[in-house]
Amino acid sequence: MRVLSVISLVVLVFAAAALFGAEPTVSATSKYVPDSCITVVTISGIQTDQGVSWMIDSWIKSPRESPLRDLLKTFIPQEMSVAFFPAKQDAPMYLLAAMSLPKGAKPDKEKIENVIRLKPESAVQTLTHKGTTIGYTTGQKGPEDFGAYALLADTLIFATDADLLKAALDGPSVDKAPNYQKTRAQFPKAKDGLLFADNSGKKFAAFLGTLEKKWKMTLLLSSQYLEWMAASFDVVNSTRVSGSFVMVGTDASRIEEIRDDAEFLGEAFRRKFIAEKIGYTSKVEVKDKTVVLTFDIQGLEPLWKRLFEQGVLELFRPERPDSKG
Amino acid sequence: MKNVLDAIKHGIRGPSGEWRFRTRWVLFGGAALLGAFIVGLVVWIFLPIEEISPPRLLPSTAFCFFSLTIDQESPGMSEILAGAKKRVESSDSWFGKKAAAKLVISSALPRSIVVILAADGSVPVDESSPKGGAPEKGVIAAGESQEGAAIVLIAGMGKTVRLMKLSARPLGRALFGGARAVKRRVDGRRFWVAGQGREESRFSAFTFVGNSLVIGSSLPVLVDSCRSLAGGARADTQRRLAALLFQALQQKDARLYADNGKGGLSDLFHTAEEKYAFAAFPSIDAVSTIEGSVRVLPGGMSGGAVFYCRGTEKLEDVKSDVKFIYGALRRKLRASDLDMKGEIAVEGKSVRFDFTIPGFAQALFARTPSEQGERK
Description:
The complex is a heterodimer of chains A (325) and B (376). By secondary structure, chain A is an alpha+beta fold. Chain A is built from nine helices and twelve strands. A twelve-stranded antiparallel β-sheet of chain A has the order 4-5-6-7-3-2-1-8-9-10-12-11, with helices on both faces. Chain A starts with a helix and ends in a 15-residue tail after the last helix. Mean pLDDT of chain A is 82; it is low at 1-13, 18-26 and 320-325. Among the domains of chain B are: 2-46; 279-376, Alpha-Beta Plaits. Chain B has helices at 2-12, 21-46, 75-89, 95-107, 160-166, 168-175, 219-229, 236-249, 264-276, 315-334, 360-364, 369-375; strands spanning 62-69, 112-118, 123-125, 138-140, 150-156, 181-186, 189-194, 205-209, 212-216, 254-259, 287-297, 300-309, 341-347, 350-358. In chain B, helix 3 (75-89) runs antiparallel to helix 4 (95-107). The model of chain B is unreliable at 127-135 and 372-376 (pLDDT under 50).
């Protein structure tokens, strides 16, 4: 029955993507995401969009406590990007989160530093890179999620370590990556969220492979034949999300395998949602080397709440090589 | 204590150390008894044993069976067994354990395995015990079924079953996830049931019937199985299932038959759907029976299943569900480097699924990357 747990997890991953997902035309946070990222999710309209603001509010207020939630209780970002990078030996989950600050917001330094501390007594050290102060912690096992931060005039950036933060400040950003630009062209009118997964150099396939090892199941049979993937979401309100998921192949000869994956994902969502008594409709279309899965989900509120209680990043966190059970 | 030792010493040898005549006979007698015991044991093991045909053990509420005939001479099966032996040889276990495992693979494998699913329930027991013994009075109730159905596993062990009888307690411990096996007599037959401290285990009772080891997920379903053996009237569905199982066991492959006439299969899927909050087969109510077979061939495995439907209205839904299950299996097997290929088609009032899995035997006993890492 592990297969079913994996599919449930995949559904939640999809939902998580919708949570962390940009007005693609104007993205204040993706410019801080280095182009070496495997996948990035940008969510915009956090303060203005009815659906997104409900979601963020519910996440912050969910019973599961975390320093990041504590911090976000003091200010609500306007936009947020979360990006995943190829894992490092001491950081199986290597990630960065950039949040654009509302005008006049002055986040509490102590609460920011709590996000990167492994233990409450851990000391936060600082370094200066290109005129920006980076706060970071060091530990024998490495940080759990974030181990460094930088507070810019209008953006707060967290990263797993200081090296990644330096890369974020150095650029080039994912905005300039050819596949990311194709994604923007694909979704010129993207609403609340945009997910981008880059498979140049098969990096997304390798990233997924690590998760698949954890799940003991191959999720995408065609991951080796993908050029990039993207999704655009519209969080209409607390219960409804609609959008489309695009999978682009390296060439048209493998399109049937990519279609098979898209159909399987669509079916997996449908079956999960049937059991959860959530309304779900989807359609798969193929054009040249592109497969598009469009979907509409209604009645999601209970599922969101459960996801927030479980912890969004738990879905992505691979087991540490030194952890036993 | 010293006096006792002296007495023994002087009983065996005389004061000058010579063997005493009487003691020599005692020793000879002991050796002869031991020899006779060993010969008796060997004779007992090799004495003809009652062959029990698994269809005779079908519980009255059975609705599904899976049968596997293990023919060590068939090319496909011999490839799997050769792979298993190779895996044992390359393992890190100590010599004795390896030798025992190889002995089991070559000589003590069951000749057939039958897994039966039945609706779980309670069985009344009273003093009209057919075999006498020490019957109980009352009702043996099944525990809450976690899986939506009771399971009976029948392993046709041949004469090896006699050795298993001698080691029933350790066998019970292994089957019951570490819990003690406790004897219980119902209908004059001895059953072994899981005692206190049972961990997560699919089985909680077993017994020996003729040449077979019969294991059950609950005592009531096992008692029901054994009552079928005693004879008596059988319902049409039970008779039909028994005939199909009999036919299946004549084949040199694995067979599956599931009757959803009374909704047993639907209950099974609905329970799983509720447990895992996932609808893997929402159209199961439209399926009346499922028939499947798997053949192990050299270099791979091939098989198929036919899903007979009650009507034609839900055929496309059933096809979609079968396609999804195929997709999930394909993705699960790909994680073990197995490339499953399948085809799904609608034929009349049924949905047909055919598949092949090349390289099955090699992948079955291949070391996982993590195991390889551990050995380095």
